[in-house]
Amino acid sequence: MSSFPGSVPDLSVLFLLLLLLPLPPISGGRGGGGGGHDYDRALHLSILFFEGQRSGRLPPDQRLRWRHDSALHDGSTAGVDLTGGYYDAGDNVKFGFPMAFTTTMLSWSIIDFGRNMGRELTHAVKAVKWATDYLLKATAIPGVVFVQVGDAFSDHNCWERPEDMDTVRTAYKIDSSHPGSDVAGDWPLPPLSSGHVTPSTPGFFSVVPFGYVFEFADRHRGAYSSSLHRAVCPFYCDVNGYQDELLWGAAWLHKASRSRVYREYIMRNEVVLHAGDTINEFGWDNKHAGINVLISKEVLMGKAGYFESFKQNADGFICSLLPGISHPQVQYSPGGLIFKAGGSNMQHVTSLSFLLLAYSNYLSHANKVVPCGGGRSASPALLKLLAKRQVNYILGDNPLRMSYMVGYGARYPQRIHHRASSLPSVQAHPAHIGCKAGSRFFLSPNPNPNLLAGAVVGGPNVTDAFPDSRPFFQESEPTTYINAPLVGLLAFFSAHP
Predict the structure, then answer these.
(1) Catalytic residue at 156?
(2) Average pLDDT for residues 258-263, to the nearest whole number?
(3) Is residue 4 included in any domain, yes or no?
(4) Active-site option among 123, 220, 254, 417
């Protein structure tokens, strides 16, 4: 782990950080590491990736042409239309929990960094809309939220294209008798946040406010992994509990509506719902750091002094990420990559880096720094530097000189754990490929035939080693919730290289 002394002022910390977290020697120009990155191209690819994850009937302007219509009967067994939405990763299941988080992070990327997206803003809004159209369908019946389509066990027992899938497409729901405050607490956010951000954006879409879904989540408290354990565990089992999603939902509802009701809810439930717990976590299961950073913006703007404790939590989160400040749950690889135990490490890298950058901007506007104790502080410039180094690591500034974004740079993963990418496309092989017939493609040493442009994989391990191999799914599988925060990061750095 890289480190720096903790008893020096911020500018010295920044200088020493540059010295003690050196870039590995890398050759190559823009897009290949070393001499600067083509953040515009990386932004373009990061949004294009979502078109490869689309479920349902694809639109005429679909750009990844090797993908075709799929799952056109989703929801039919429950008498509802649940077509559309996104496959979360390299499989063919639609998991609602990570989809809601993905869409919220795409929306937050637009809220904070949409002005830096240029012509890609239209595509980013379309990526949000593809999900919100589905989320609206999933909440069309009052008192019911459909949170998953597809049986994960039967799906994971096959290796087949989404266009061919013939596995069980059960539609799983939560209701008053089978609560899921975690998923339902997350659900209102994408429509609200996207509606809040770009009402004047060309092609903007309007959605019905989802406050009633939050009320349902709060009234019928419980974790969806208790109600639907067999369906969702161990894939997207809620380990962290539902309390953070209720605060997360209230924070976004307050941001969007400025309603006193949600402000009072946050203040009343801050302790009950454990606002300060596990502050260095942020992802589809644990929203604590995101809650504190989101609410802290109002404190830094001088509009909500009553939320001061959230800013203190956000400051603590920032300090826990600084290299050299000991924290048992945050490590840095020898090459400088944030690393947290568990699978798909890049989900932590992009989500935590997004918060570093967002908080840096909030601090800059308030002319503030983060106090870390012992005379140490972290400036907005330092936070931006830390976030940028993580982005650059992903794009190729790492010991293997490899971009972890498919299609970016001269060298990137070729054998990603992704069914549609690894099997012949419908154009190349029109005949049906059955459940087990795809196994030979899974086990093949050959590169994937279809380029899932923009996909960012789970990434290297704590020693910076990466097996470019489909069976190593924790390292080689892309996910929507890896890419979603990266969209905002790349937008900012495309305008501030």
Answers:
(1) no
(2) 86
(3) no
(4) 417
- Looking at the domain assignment, is residue 1 inside a domain? no
Asked if residue 2 belongs to a domain, the reply is no
Catalytic residue among 51, 74, 112, 477: 477
Number of independent structural domains in the chain: 1
Residue 3 lies in a domain: no
Mean pLDDT of the chain: 87
Say what percent of the chain tops pLDDT 70.
86
What is the rounded (10 degree) CA torsion for 187, 182, 104, 82?
A: -40
Closest CA to 408 of 31, 46, 48, 117: 31
Give the model confidence (pLDDT) of 443-469 as tens digits.
999 999 999 999 999 999 999 999 999
Which pLDDT tens digit goes with each residue over 345-399? 999 999 999 999 999 999 999 999 999 988 889 999 999 999 999 999 999 999 9
- Provide the domain limits for residue 110: 10-495
CA separation for the pair 186, 236 (Å, rounded): 14
Q: Is 468 noted as a catalytic residue in this protein?
A: yes
CATH code for position 41 = 1.50.10.10
Selected catalytic residue, list 10, 164, 468, 475:
468
Separation CA 292–CA 296 (nearest Å): 6
Give me the pLDDT at residue 98, please: 96
> What is the mean pLDDT of the segment spanning 247-257?
87
Collect contacts of 426-435 with beta carbons under 8 A, ≥24 apart.
426/66, 426/68, 426/161, 426/163, 427/65, 427/66, 432/164, 433/160, 433/161, 433/164, 434/160, 434/164, 434/166, 435/157, 435/158, 435/159, 435/160, 435/166, 435/167
69 is catalytic: no
Per-residue model confidence (pLDDT) at position 488: 98
